[in-house]
Each structure stands twice: as structure tokens, then as C-alpha cells.
Design brief:
Blueprint: H1 13-41, H2 50-53, H3 72-75, H4 80-105, H5 118-129, H6 138-159, H7 179-196, H8 204-213, H9 215-220, H10 223-245, H11 269-286, H12 291-307
Helix pairs in contact: 4-5, 4-10, 5-8, 5-10, 6-7, 6-8, 6-10, 7-8, 11-12
């Protein structure tokens, strides 16, 4: 059977144009990735005054000392576990107390909803329990909670009517309204959006579900976003203070984890030559003295002699 495939014509203007276009797109993609990496890895903290950069999570190399008010931790050699327990207890208690105070004494108290403490508790556990985890970084906390509250507000606006809504999921009457569907969609879409924007934050799941099943939150609509962000800012503000007055540190980074380049492997020519000589000697010893291997043995012996 005859081969009817046309020969490749590298001089074709159409082919050259496609290759140039592909090369241009490749260069543009590479330059955009480099620009994104520079922006995300840019750190302004080293140039700030010490008392500012410290409470933004910056430390110079090998610095893990507390502020002067807590020098007794070094003096009495307080174990890290005890320090973590004390800081976590004080931080959690103070954070929830401040949120309750703010939500009860400001204009937020006029909203027809209870204090949103379930997501707050989840965020507090995330930040103080895993301060170095990427999901606890300020970027993930802010964006993750924002997307969760936004998605739940949009989904409930589309699916639910706050005038006739009752939370029927607990009663097993799922056919009466679409609360169950709103909760499922809010959580599922939130995870997808967080993955796309690289802002995964597990406590955002509680925010999304709560915003879908609570009648009061459904009633206030998009005000839920401001409520959640106010809560998050209170938590982050206290975390920046409490986590940085002791030997702890928060956050490690703000936008993106710094890329650490792997150290280049040093090559020692003398060690490499010695290893090669050893391999050749082992090959000569391995070959038996016979007519079949005599030529190979003599050739390897010449190579070994030249390496000396």
C-alpha cells in the first residue's frame, strides 16, 4: 500500500508562523509565571522597623527570643509545650471574649442573628493549633473565609426564601424546602473556589454551611460577608500580637511560602576518579583468567594504568 503522507515542508510560511506563535506563547507564559512568583514572594518586612516587622511575623536568622515582658520564659527555661498551652489558652479565651464584646456592643448587635461563634472557634483552632500550616496563613484565612461567606450568600439568594424558610434538615423533612441543597452546594462550590484560588482554609466549610442553614443569616443576605470578615480581622489582629510576643512566630509568610532552592551538589573530581579506578579494578578481578576475557582484561588494565 502506498504511503500518501505528504512530506514535511519546514520552509512553509504557515508552519513557521505556527512555530513562532507557539514560541511566543511559551515565552509569555514563562514571563507571567516569573512575574507572579516575584510578586507573591516579595517580602517587605525586613525593611520595616523591628517592632513592626516582629508583629508581622518576621524574624532574623536564629532569633526566637520573647519580648522583654516575657524574658522570664528564658530565665526559668519554660518548656515549649507549656508555653504553647499558656499562649493558646489565653489567646482562645481573649479572642472569643473580644468577638462577643464587639458583636454585642456595636451596630452588629442589631442584626437578627446570633453571634457567629462556630466559624470563629474553628479559625482560632487553626491559627493557634497549626500556626505554621499554609491553611493558617493570613492569605488563606482571609480569602478562604471571604469565598465561603460569598458563595453561601449567593447560593441562598438563589435557592431560598427567608420569609418561608425553616431549618428542616434536622427534622428529616428535606422535601419542604431546599435548605439541604443550599448547604451541599455552598460547601462544594466553596472547596472548588478555594482550590482554584489556592486559598484552601478548612474552617471556611463551617462558614459556608452555617450561612446556608441559619434562617437569620439567610435573612441578612450579603451582610453576612461583612460579619464574617469583621470576625476574621479580630482573630488575625489578636493572633499577630499574641503569637509574636513569646518565642513563637506567626505568620511565616503572608502571600506565598518562600521557595527554598536546593543546595547545589558539590562534585569532587578526585573522589570521582578514585571511585572509577575502584570500579575498573573490581571489573578486572571479576573477569576470570581465560582466553575469552583476556582481551577485555588487558584493555581494562591499560585504562587503569592511564588513569594513574
Amino acid at each position: 500500500m502506498r504511503d500518501l503522507t505528504l512530506p514535511r515542508d519546514d520552509s512553509s510560511p504557515t508552519l513557521q508562523g505556527k512555530e513562532e506563535k507557539a514560541l511566543l506563547l511559551k515565552r509569555l507564559y514563562k514571563s507571567s509565571k516569573n512575574f507572579e512568583s516575584k510578586v507573591l514572594n516579595y517580602d517587605i518586612r525586613p525593611g520595616l522597623p523591628y517592632w513592626v516587622s516582629r508583629f508581622l511575623g518576621y524574624r532574623s536568622e536564629n532569633e526566637s527570643r520573647p519580648i522583654w515582658l516575657l524574658k522570664w520564659m528564658d530565665k526559668f527555661r519554660v518548656p515549649n509545650l507549656l508555653e504553647s498551652c499558656l499562649c493558646d489558652f489565653f489567646a482562645s479565651f481573649t479572642t472569643i471574649l473580644l468577638i462577643c464584646t464587639v458583636f454585642s456592643t456595636t451596630s452588629l448587635a442589631k442584626l437578627p442573628i446570633p453571634i457567629v461563634l462556630a466559624p470563629a472557634g474553628a479559625v482560632v483552632i487553626s491559627i493557634y493549633g497549626y500556626p505554621l500550616a499554609p491553611v493558617s496563613s493570613p492569605r488563606n484565612v482571609l480569602l478562604g473565609q471571604f469565598w465561603a461567606s460569598l458563595v453561601s450568600s449567593i447560593v441562598t439568594k438563589i435557592l431560598l426564601d427567608h420569609n418561608t424558610m425553616t431549618v428542616t434538615v434536622e427534622r428529616g423533612e428535606m422535601g419542604r424546602n431546599l435548605v439541604w441543597l443550599a448547604a451541599c452546594l455552598s460547601l462544594a462550590i466553596t472547596i472548588v473556589v478555594q482550590n482554584i484560588t489556592r486559598s484552601l482554609h478548612p474552617p471556611g466549610g463551617a462558614t459556608a454551611v452555617l450561612g446556608s442553614v441559619s434562617p437569620g443569616i439567610v435573612e441578612i443576605g450579603f451582610k453576612y460577608i461583612g460579619l464574617v470578615m469583621a470576625m476574621v480581622l479580630i482573630i488575625l489582629g489578636l493572633a499577630l500580637i499574641i503569637q509574636n510576643i513569646s518565642r513563637r512566630r506567626y505568620p511565616m509568610y503572608w502571600l506565598s511560602p518562600p521557595k527554598t532552592e536546593a543546595p547545589a551538589k558539590s562534585y569532587d573530581p578526585e573522589k570521582g576518579l578514585a571511585k572509577l579506578k575502584q570500579m575498573v579494578s573490581e571489573m578486572i578481578t571479576f573477569l576470570e583468567e581465560s582466553d575469552e576475557n583476556s582481551e577485555i582484561r588487558s584493555m581494562l588494565a591499560e585504562i587503569l594504568e592511564k588513569m594513574k
